[in-house]
């Protein structure tokens, strides 16, 4: 199915084998990111890992991120922070469970933000 989100065409494939074949033969076409003026200004002219075009620079940046930030040892080193933030979130849920409805999407967004901030600092 082809949809247009504004002026961005989006292909949706619901069959796993077809999706796998498309990504195997046309992965470079589908892996490029859309560009906007605001992204260029905020993200150092697309030098950010999430916005840089799929080329050699992106492959080098991904390799550095995986090696230094997402290695098993590094992820396990933050286990205490993860457990502490999860415990705090569970306490918030249990304290407000009896009185009002809980917006879990907001809670998970807050948990993710808190984790990223604490780990990066």
TrEMBL record:
Its family remark reads: Belongs to the cytochrome P450 family.
UniProt cross-references to Pfam families, sorted A to Z: p450 (PF00067)
Query: What is the name of the protein in this document?
Result: Uncharacterized protein
The organism's superkingdom is given as: Eukaryota
Q: Which UniProt keywords apply?
A: Iron, Metal-binding
Q: Does the keyword Nuclease apply?
A: no
Q: Which InterPro entries match?
A: Cyt_P450, Cyt_P450_sf
